[in-house]
Amino acid sequence: MKIGLFDSGLGGLIITKSVIGALPQYDYVYLGDTARVPYGNRSQDIIYQFTRSGVEYLFAQDCGLVILACNTASAEALMRIQHDILPAYPGRRVLGVLVPAAEETAVQTKTGRVGILATQGTVASGAYVRELHKLAPQATITQQAAPLLVPLVENNALQYASPILDDYLAPLLAAHIDTLVLGCTHYPLFKQQLQAKLGPAIRIVSQDDCVPPRLADYLRRHSSFDQQLTRTGTRQFLMTDITPSTRQVAAQLFGQPVQLRHVSLS
């Protein structure tokens, strides 16, 4: 069985690249729902329906483990998918990227003043607040929705980000945060810009850094499941819509050209 990664668009390629770099021996299938991106401004029910169709498609591609490389899907759909879908797929597993980021944040913060930069859907779900308070009950958490950042990435328009980032960072800086969580898999592309604006005293938690080691640890702790995963080094990149811009942005995010294949989700 393979490892599948699902995202609402192209941002999950950043996580996929880092996971493959850390664990290159496994077989991977990436599925980006580029026809329906972004998910962050959708209703919870629609996010669940879209995510479920992606997960079931990856199961049909012989993926034994599916990682929701999308914070909105992890926040709004993961628990329901684990409860509703997995009983029909014995031996399969679905994990998210939100908990690894929360765990890393609890380690990094020194003052307990944490900022969350995320999509509207992830902010509205309160998922980061809940997970962080499990690990750091006294933490003071300031959330900021950043709805314009995903379209900038998906349209290869990062050069317009600076004044937008200033607006989004203002309330977080006013809250005197010491740690900023990039609560969307698209956001690592803004990491350098953000660090320059925040200064060296504020730590950035980015999922391309924290997901791979925690996935490796998960597989070590579940050795019998790990043994069922195939290791031939194959990679597939599937998209629900492909345009010239899609190919360009995918190559930029993954760090090299990738062969994209079009698929349809119900």
The largest pleated sheet is described as: 6 strands, parallel
**What is the straight-line distance between the termini?**
23 Å
Shape assignment: globular
Find the count of extended strands (DSSP E, 2+ residues). 10
Number of domains in the coordinates?
A: 2
Q: C-alpha Rg, in Å?
A: 17 Å
Strand order in the sheet with the most strands: 4-3-1-2-9-10
Poorly predicted spans: none
DSSP strand content: 15-25%
Helical fraction: 40-55%
Q: Which class do the helix and strand fractions yield?
A: alpha/beta
Order of helices and strands: EHEHEHHEHEHHEHHEHEHHEHE
| Corresponding CATH architecture of the largest domain | 3-Layer(aba) Sandwich
What fold name goes in the CATH topology slot of the largest domain? Rossmann fold
CATH C-level name of the largest domain: Alpha Beta
Can you count the helices?
Answer: 13
Average pLDDT, rounded to a whole number, is 94
Element layout with pairings:
Blueprint: E1 2-7, H1 12-22, E2 28-32, H2 44-60, E3 63-68, H3 71-76, H4 78-84, E4 93-96, H5 98-108, E5 113-118, H6 120-125, H7 127-135, E6 140-145, H8 149-154, H9 162-174, E7 179-183, H10 191-198, E8 203-205, H11 207-221, H12 223-226, E9 235-239, H13 244-254, E10 260-262
Parallel strand pairs: 1-2, 1-3, 2-9, 3-4, 5-6, 5-7, 7-8, 9-10
